[in-house]
Amino acid sequence: MKGSVIKYERDNIDTDVILPGPYLKIHDYAELATHAMEGLDKDFHKRVKPGDFIVAGRNFGCGSSREHAPIALSYSGIKAVLALSFARIFYRNAVDGAFLLPIEIDEGAYKDISDTDLLEVDISTNEIKNLTKNKIYKMKPFPELIGKIIEAGGLFNYKP
Amino acid sequence: MSKTLFEKIWDSHIVVEENGRSLLYVDRHLVHEVTSPQAFDGLRLNGRTVRRTDLTFATMDHNVPTSDRSLPIIDQTSSTQIKALERNCKEFGITLFDIHSPNQGIVHVIGPELGITLPGTTIVCGDSHTSTHGAFGALAFGIGTSDVEHVLATQCIMMEKPKTFEININGKRKNPHAVTAKDIILSIIRKIGTSGGTGTVIEYRGETISELTMEQRMTICNMSIEAGARAGLIAPDEKTYQYLRGRKYAPKNYDEYVSLWRETLKTDSGARFDKSFTLSAENIAPQVSWGTNPAMTTDVTGVVPFPDEYGKGNSEEEKGAEKALQYMNLKAGMAITDIAIDRVFIGSCTNSRLEDLMEAAKVVKGKKVSSRVRAMVVPGSQLVKKNAEEIGLDKIFKDAGFEWRESGCSMCLGMNPDILASGERCASTSNRNFEGRQGTGGRTHLVSPVMAAAAAIHGHFVDVRELDLN
Known about the structure:
The complex is a heterodimer. By secondary structure, chain A is of the alpha/beta class. Chain A is built from 7 helices and 7 strands; from the N terminus they run E-H-H-H-E-H-E-H-E-H-E-E-E-H. Chain A has a single domain, classed as Alpha-Beta Barrel (Aconitase, domain 4). Chain A has a 7-stranded mixed β-sheet with strand order 4-3-2-1-5-6-7. The longest helix of chain A is centred in the middle third of the chain and has 9 residues. Chain A is globular, with a radius of gyration of 15 Å. By secondary structure, chain B is α/β, with parallel strands linked by helices. Helix content of chain B is about 30%, strand content about 15%. Chain B is built from 16 helices and 19 strands.
């Protein structure tokens, strides 16, 4: 996976800013995507390109259980969110629906990665290459079960 | 081996266990209009049915208007979502408490009220505040739509076992009418942070918790998710059994259940928790949130903090506080009691039950809402509304200038006509003060029902310990 970074230097980016409440009535995923991150960054949908990564601080996706949040990010083109930590329901929704990869990174990587950096993420080696800065970071490996669900393409395709 | 209450419920619901992952049986599945349409579509697409229609209950709460129910719903997208739930429940054979049902209400208010919520059960719902039901000693947690579909189809959910976290709250509150369950849970979140409970199931314990009524315990468990926890639990006791007795869906051979619950549903002495936190209730003051997450909260007697003071050397926390003050349009150092309010919302799955309204009414009785404030009371369910009206609470609120509305999630989440205008500041008894939560540009201060009621009367926050609430 290769893409450029949209960085938000913030902790506690909640599902209400990722996909504000009024849009939970929208069923069309492409339309949902036009409102992704609207509560925090009105220009996100103009900026985001297919394959991009979001980089953020602690407790990304806290709050509501709305699956619309990872869906909106996914359909706007985001392949993975790289954050210091995730709220559990968001993490689970992202993986179960195979919408995007929730990747935990450490403080060093978080501080080093800048907005617009070009990254290459390889979950088979747990490596994140920063092609702009010519650096390599380690991501936290997925737990075994989660790795298998990701590999299967979501909960419904996973066979124990 | 000694076990915690959580471990007992978990173990008794395992269908299959392999390498630390478990398939758990789900005893109750609660469904609402917002997180279910795609799940039903998925069932149809794959030719699946609902496995246990008898254990699945639906209502509409998130986007229903709280105005006159005899009028049509003007918002087309809301109307479509509500009609979709009606169609889905009919097609799949699920009990639905629709907009005209005397049992309609916020899903987390009606579950306990109807005796659907029972001790020792597992409960899921496509809503993060499902943690509320933990007040009855049920293991209850929020799930997303993919999981909703999975539970509808299989009545099971796959999970890795969460860690256990005990929070002990001891000591007597000096004025329990002024320092409420809301103030206790906000104090906890303020101390452990919005991710302090991540990956855990919290069990709230201690004498302060034992003394709380069932409705107050629901307020505590409701906000477990705001600390990042999977679920919150309180061991059931005689108050729990009494509360549920005779409710519509409570078991008919109730006494047999109670004997079983009494025997089994408690944490064994000597059981170990992965994590522990202790708080004294003695010195808790009424709480007011000043920022944009529930941990950004302080005492009503305090001031809006300076970001560096709040951050205590953590630059991310400091930046977060700066951004929050900017959004909230507050100046560091100003007294909380100097914050002027435009709107007041008493409602939500956190604080919309009969006792919440009774406590708030004590503050309001014989007074008038400040001329600068628009205030509303939204009972959590039709039953709460009816019970409140029977004891004349509607009259007290209306005479004071409050709007008295129909049940639903209302202004908690900006999905229905009840929203804040940009820049408006609200004293709210809900659970989230996130940016834009109550409407784009709206500013939320989380408080208890008595604090919200007092703010409505005075036009700014006041220390309710100085009022006569007895």
